[in-house]
Amino acid sequence: MRAVIVVESCFGATLAAAEEIARGLRDSGMSAAVLAPREATPEAIGRAGLLVLGAPTHNRGLPTPGSRATAVKRGGRAEDPGLREWLTDARLPASARIAAFDTVTGPGWINGSAAKRIARLSRHRGAAIRSFLVEAGDSGALAGGQAGKARAWGAELASDREHRPGESGDAVPE
């Protein structure tokens, strides 16, 4: 099975999580590609059996043009298009399983979740969802132990090859 990870990253932590997820998938025998939204053309994602979508959490949700501009002012970079915009226009493969992840600066409802918004926008209510903690500030680093958790989640996604959207995974609130 082929997996494609489409990721938006401003300071590097979300990309680092995506690379670890890909490593976990590859270690489990799956082919995995990591792409920025601008690289995720219909041809690039069309044959994916698993599509993993990830972004940093900005203002309790997906990055916006305004939050990306703020990230650039703080030394980050901005994806154009970002995942939010890409999801608006993308035609996701009907047969692909969908999983979503985000990076957050802290646990709990206060921080929100880009991954939950990704699952809603991708119209996959049964998408598997994970969050990975990042260091406070603009270091672009995953918090201690998070790289291993991302890799393990990739392996978990690979081992659940027969999963279809809606059968299991974290429920996405309406």
Unreliable segments of 5+ consecutive residues: 162-174
Specify the structural class.
alpha/beta
Number of strands: 5
Strand content: 15-25%
CATH class: Alpha Beta
Radius of gyration: 15 Å
CATH architecture: 3-Layer(aba) Sandwich
Quote the distance from N terminus to C terminus. Answer: 30 Å
Overall number of domains: 1
Spatial strand sequence of the major β-sheet = 2-1-3-4-5
CATH topology: Rossmann fold
- Tell me about the biggest sheet? 5 strands, parallel
Helix-strand pattern = EHEHEHHEHEH
Q: Helical content, roughly?
A: 25-40%
CATH superfamily: Flavodoxin domain
Mean pLDDT: 87
Q: Which word captures the global form?
A: globular
Number of helices: 6
Give descriptors for this structure:
174 residues, Rossmann fold, 33% helix, five-stranded parallel beta sheet, Flavodoxin/NO_synth, Flavoprotein-like_sf, 6 helices, alpha/beta, Flavodoxin
Tell me what the structure shows.
InterPro entries: Flavodoxin/NO_synth, Flavoprotein-like_sf. It comes from Actinomyces timonensis. One of its GO terms (molecular function) is FMN binding. This is Flavodoxin. The C terminus is likely disordered. Helix content is 33%, strand content 18%. The protein is globular. The chain has one domain: 3-Layer(aba) Sandwich (Rossmann fold). It is α/β, with parallel strands linked by helices and 174 residues long. Strand 4, helix 5 and strand 5 form a beta-alpha-beta unit. Strands 2-1-3-4-5 form a 5-stranded parallel β-sheet, sandwiched between helices. The longest helix is centred in the N-terminal third of the chain and has 15 residues. The protein has 6 helices and 5 strands.
